[in-house]
Amino acid sequence: MRVLLVLILLLSPTAFGLAAPEAVRPAGLALVLDVRDAIGPASRDFILRGLERARTRDAAVVILRLDTPGGLDSSMRDIIQAILAAPAPVIGYVAPEGARAASAGTYILYACHVAAMAPATNLGAATPVRIGGLPLPAQPPGDDRPGDPAAPKPEGSPPPKPADSPVPPAGGDLERKLINDARAYLRSLAQLRGRNADWAERAVTEAASLSAQDALQQGVIDLIAVDVADLLGQVDGRLVETVDGKRPLATRNLTVETLAPDWRNRLLALIAQPMVAYVLLLVGVYGLFFELANPGAALPGVLGGICLLLALFAFQVLPVNTTGLALLLLGLAFMIAEAFLPSFGVLGLGGIVAFVAGSLLLWDETGPGYEIPLALILGFALASAAVLIGLATLLLRQRRRPVVSGAEELLGASGVVMADDPGRAWVRGESWRVRADRALRHGERIRVVGRDGLTLFVQPLDSDKGGPPS
Predict the structure, then answer these.
(1) How many structural domains compose the chain?
(2) How would you classify the pairing of strands 455-460 and 445-452?
(3) What digits encode the pLDDT tens for the residues 63-111?
(4) Is residue 119 in a domain?
(5) Are 133 and 191 in a shared domain?
């Protein structure tokens, strides 16, 4: 019987779950970053943090799901640099259906290791535009529309240009510099990823756009996928070039985790909106102007300082961490100044607002061990508010207390006229010369209503009239 049991165990290693033919490898991670807004400081912060999170969690692939009308050049270039330096392959995916990757989104899509689009999406229109004005069109409207080659031409019209001849950008020198720089940048990304570089130049110089099917046919993108599962299935086994060299993608059976912008990123995106940023800048400048014109007003200066720092972040003059630190220090300075300046709580409340805003900009709930707990921020803010409210309460109580020293201390005090000298009275245990509107009687009770040196103006307690005698 024992021999039979040993034979069964040897011939059937999987019996009783003792062994497996091969070790079961745990599924890898595919991290999806959703970008559905203009490219700016907020989206830059979100993507860079997402790529850092993918690195710390050793994600097999990062999917950058794009639906953007474009955005700031500086934010776009920071994102592209992070993608090019990412150890994990980054797949640019324009989705869902009806989405677009226009302007800055086209550059980001070209920079990704794999470029994909969902059906009924588009990309292109990558001509750089200055804030505050539009560059002149590269050619008159309507020149790029197809026409009948056999149609008669107007007499004296210039001969048509060849299709492959470059069109020099119109406008001033600054527009030409911007367009030439953007064209070279996008072409370099296309050459790096082996995609259509000629169309990349057209997207910059002619603001050309393509649908998903046309982009696939012209070699602008690598594939079309209906969803993330279809995308992972199509890219499996594809060879990509990363910072660590060429590597094949192993995307089957990956665990898909979507990282959507949280309320912090949405708040940053709202601040970075052009109209909001412009209003913040104006409020900041005018607030500081009114504070300097009327020193001690407090409210314009507090509001102007906070709004100006937020505007500098929105225009990407200051990075998010620097802005958060500056607001935090400004809030602490306001709260300390509240204890020494008669601002009636304006500095204290403004300091709490600035402190909370700066702490939220520094707060990162996805940070690996370096995040600031939200409970700590709110706890400190509530504690500061409690201290300020308590201080204001004590000051109000102190203001209502009667004066106990100085010349004003005698006002309202009561006394008694001396028996031997009606011109003098005992007040607070002291003998004072007194004057009243009428003659005072011996031992009559009086109340002090004024003072002139060592003479007190008094009023008999049974009199309805008050005030010192003239």
Answers:
(1) 3
(2) antiparallel
(3) 999 999 988 888 899 999 999 999 999 999 999 999 999 999 999 999 9
(4) yes
(5) yes
Query: Do 102 and 223 belong together in one domain?
Result: yes
pTM over the 0.90 mark? no
- Answer yes or no: do 180 and 282 share one domain: no
- pLDDT, tens digit, 9 for 90 and up, residues 261-298: 877 778 888 888 888 888 999 999 999 998 888 887 78
- Residue 99 belongs to some domain of the structure: yes
450-467, pLDDT tens digit by residue?
Answer: 887 788 888 888 754 444
3 state SS for the chain:
CHHHHHHHHHHCCCHHHCCCCCCCCCCCEEEEEEECCCECHHHHHHHHHHHHHHHHCCCCEEEEEECECCECHHHHHHHHHHHHCCCCCEEEEECCCCCEEECHHHHHHHHCCEEEECCCCEEECCCCCCCCCCCCCCCCCCCCCCCCCCCCCCCCCCCCCCCCCCCCCCCCHHHHHHHHHHHHHHHHHHHHHCCCHHHHHHHHHCCCEEEHHHHHHCCCCCEECCCHHHHHHHHCCCEEEECCEEEECCCCCCEEEEECCCHHHHHHHHHCCHHHHHHHHHHHHHHHHHHHHCCCCCHHHHHHHHHHHHHHHHCCCCCHHHHHHHHHHHHHHHHHHHCCCCCCCHHHHHHHHHHHHHHHHHCCCCCCCCCCCHHHHHHHHHHHHHHHHHHHHHHHHHHHCCCCCCHHHHCCCEEEECCCCCCEEEECCEEEEEECCCCCCCCCEEEEEEEECCEEEEEECCCCCCCCCC
Q: Are residues 201 and 238 in the same domain?
A: yes
**For range 115-134, the mean pLDDT:** 82
CATH number at residue 66: 3.90.226.10
At residue 262, the pLDDT reads 77
Record the tokens describing residue 64, joined without a space.
């950058």
Residue 238 sits in the same domain as residue 300: no
Low-confidence winner among 20-24, 38-42, 218-222, 278-282 (lowest mean pLDDT): 20-24
What range does the domain containing 115 cover? Answer: 29-142+167-261
Q: Which of 380, 400, 420 is the last residue of a domain?
A: 400
Considering the domain architecture, whether residues 55 and 180 belong to the same structural domain is answered as yes
